[in-house]
Amino acid sequence: MLVLDPNACVKLLETIDREIEADSTAGETTGVIALISGREIVGASVGDSEAWLISPRGAERLTSGQMRKPFLGSGVASPVAFRASFTEGSLLVGSDGLFKYTSEEKICAAVLEKDLKIAVDSLVRLVGLPSGTLPDDVGIALARRSD
To answer: Can you give the pTM of this predicted structure?
Structure first.
């Protein structure tokens, strides 16, 4: 069985931070690592992207304790570890372009859609402008328990 170590996720993000900072052509960014094994999620994050565990009872913000700044690539980012039980629901990882432009209630309703593709499409539509464009970059990863 895979041993999940949130501190290893922190160390990986710290390494990524130093490598980006050493690259004169790179900028700064946000980051979330989320690993799932069996009935557990571990990870680490820095910046303003987020990871939520969503069930019919609502959302648990796994990344609520993260440091928004400094970002990865600054050379001094401070990733924060997280761990959660994954016995039901869906894991949503997304960029701030999703979380900043709609409500928790609407995000939860979209994620609870039965079909994953429809759920992701609904999430993107939540933040879309009438012109069809997005107000910010939107990155989404959605995983669901299947047992």
So the answer is: 0.91
What crossing angle do the helices spanning 116-127 and 104-111 adopt, rounded to 10°?
160
Q: What is the largest CA-CA distance in the chain?
A: 48
What domains appear along the chain, each with residue ranges and CATH number?
A: 6-144 (3.60.40.10)
- 5/10 Cα distance (integer angstroms): 9
* CA nearest to 55, candidates 86, 33, 83: 86
How many C-beta atoms surround the C-beta of residue 94 within 10 A? 21
Q: b/e string for 124-138 if b means 16 or more Cβ within 10 A? A: eebbeeeeeeeeeeb
Q: How confident is the model at residue 103 (pLDDT cuts 50, 70, 90)?
A: very high
* 9, 42 Cβ separation under 8 angstroms: yes
Please give the backbone phi and psi of residue 85, each rounded to the nearest 5 degrees, phi first. -80, 140
Q: Which residues contact 100 (CB under 8 A, 6 or more apart)?
A: 48, 136
Residue 30: CB atoms within 10 Å: 20
Going by C-alpha positions, the residue among 82, 68, 76 that lies closest to residue 31 is 68
Residue-level length of the chain: 147
Count of CB atoms within 10 A of residue 21's CB?
17
